[in-house]
Design brief:
Layout: E1 15-19, E2 21-24, E3 29-31, E4 34-39, E5 42-47, E6 57-60, E7 64-68, E8 70-75, H1 84-90, H2 93-109, E9 112-117, H3 126-135, E10 143-146, E11 150-152, E12 173-175, H4 179-191, E13 197-200, E14 206-208, E15 211-213, H5 220-232, E16 237-241, H6 246-253, E17 257-260, H7 266-275, E18 278-280, H8 283-291, H9 296-319, H10 339-346, H11 351-365, E19 383-387, E20 402-405, E21 408-411
Parallel strand pairs: 1-6, 2-7, 8-9, 9-10, 11-12, 13-16, 16-17, 17-18
Antiparallel strand pairs: 1-4, 2-3, 4-5, 7-19, 14-15, 19-20, 20-21
Length: 412
């Protein structure tokens, strides 16, 4: 059975999922065996043994572990491996939307049942159509929080730099060069269906003599104006921010997440802990760029950048910075982003801590707290099964054998 079944709503009959193990993500306790009773799109009961109502379908997953559907808090459905800056130039929005629908399916099949799309990179609000089609059951894919196009300054990180200016090559983000322009662009994006706003706050990054630096794009006051405008509608801001002082400005303004977070000052760390602002490290994209560099010199630079990032991450863990899990998938193949959880374990977190960052913090960051991210009565039935025990070997998350989203079996 594959993703085609996702177009069908969950059946009226109850379903009992049975496996050798079930992870209670909040306590870290592993139930042996584990069972889940699902009715419609919701979980009804969880335990070592649950009721088996008359007419229930029993799905026995054998020597597997049941756990909540994974969450990726930083994805790009409209990107694929290859020259990222040229995709906007060479591919139509229609073509890129087809790419996005295929990417959504691949992510779902890999066990990611909820994701946050961090910008269409030049495809405008086309992600609104993808999100809505998934919600309506017309195409398979994760639950999505979308941002439309990201926002950037003239000459900033995602502007079209290095082209013949007479060609007027479009940027991969919408221009906003003041607080007033930020608010105007945000209002247009919300009008077109955005769930949140993604702002580029830093870039381009540089590394000299082992010292990381990056210019900021918006002042703290400008970011604060954006945060207040989003809050007026009950929405939030996420920033691409790799280092100081941009990361500090973002924390002072009260954004929801600081994505990449290569460099955080002590004051930024303090504010992130105080305000519960999540860092989203995105190790996988840094590793991918290091391993797929065009020249040896570029490879050396990317590996050095990753090394600096790893050391900073260890300091952030020790300081208690709130973490969520996002891979930046898109420039590397969709459906392979469980690698992010493996790298976060490799660089210092325990498997349970990474899973809690992914599932509990991810649900909060996406605004679905108490709806997804745990296997509890009343929660949406987003469930996956993996071979082995992810608390002993986080790598088993790369081999998802079963996927249920909202009570509908998507992969079996």
């Amino acid at each position: 059975m594959n993703a085609a079944s996702q177009s069908q709503p969950p059946g009226n009959h109850p379903i009992v999922l049975h496996a050798a193990r079930l992870l209670d993500i909040k306590t870290g306790r592993m139930l042996r065996p584990g069972e889940i009773l699902v009715q419609g799109e919701r979980i009804v009961e969880v335990g070592t043994s649950v009721k088996h109502p008359s007419g229930a379908e029993v799905i026995d997953l054998g020597d597997h572990t049941l756990l909540p559907g994974l969450i990726d808090a930083h994805i790009h459905l409209f990107l694929h491996p290859g020259a990222e800056d040229l995709q906007t130039v060479q591919e139509s929005v229609a073509q890129r939307t087809i790419t996005a629908t295929l990417a959504a399916r691949d992510d779902l099949m890999a066990g990611f049942t909820a994701e946050r799309d961090m910008g269409t990179e030049g495809a405008g609000s086309a992600d609104t159509a993808v999100r809505n089609a998934i919600d309506e059951g017309r195409i398979p894919g994760p639950r999505l929080r979308i941002s439309g196009n990201a926002i950037n300054i003239l000459g900033g990180h995602e502007d079209a730099i290095g082209y013949n200016p007479d060609q007027h090559v479009l940027p991969n983000a919408n221009y906003a060069n003041s607080a007033d322009e930020l608010i105007a662009v945000m209002r247009q994006q919300f009008k077109e269906g955005a769930d949140f706003i993604k702002i580029y706050e830093t870039g381009a990054d540089s590394l000299r003599d082992g010292k990381f630096s990056t210019p900021y794009q918006y002042t703290e006051a400008q970011l604060e104006a954006a945060v207040k405008e989003a809050a007026r509608l009950g929405k939030r801001i996420a920033v691409h921010a790799t280092g100081e002082p941009g990361t500090l400005f973002a924390a002072q303004a009260g954004v929801a997440s600081i994505d990449h977070a290569n460099q955080l000052s002590d004051e930024t760390v303090r504010l992130m802990k105080e305000k519960q602002i999540f860092a989203v490290p995105t190790f996988t994209i840094f590793e991918y760029f290091a391993e797929h560099a065009v020249t040896p010199a570029q490879a050396a630079h990317e590996h050095q950048m990753l090394d600096v990032k790893v050391q900073e991450f260890k300091r952030q863990i020790a300081a208690g910075v709130p973490m969520a899990v996002g891979s930046d998938v898109g420039p590397f193949p969709h459906g392979t982003q469980a690698r992010e959880l493996i790298l976060m374990v490799k660089y210092g977190m325990s498997p349970l801590a990474v899973l809690q960052a992914d599932l509990l913090n991810g649900a909060r960051l996406l605004g679905w707290d108490s709806q997804i991210g745990a296997l509890e009565p009343g929660y949406l039935a987003d469930v996956i099964a993996v071979p082995g025990d992810p608390l002993q070997d986080i790598g088993v998350l790369q081999n998802v054998a079963f996927v249920m989203k909202g009570g509908a079996v998507c992969k079996k």
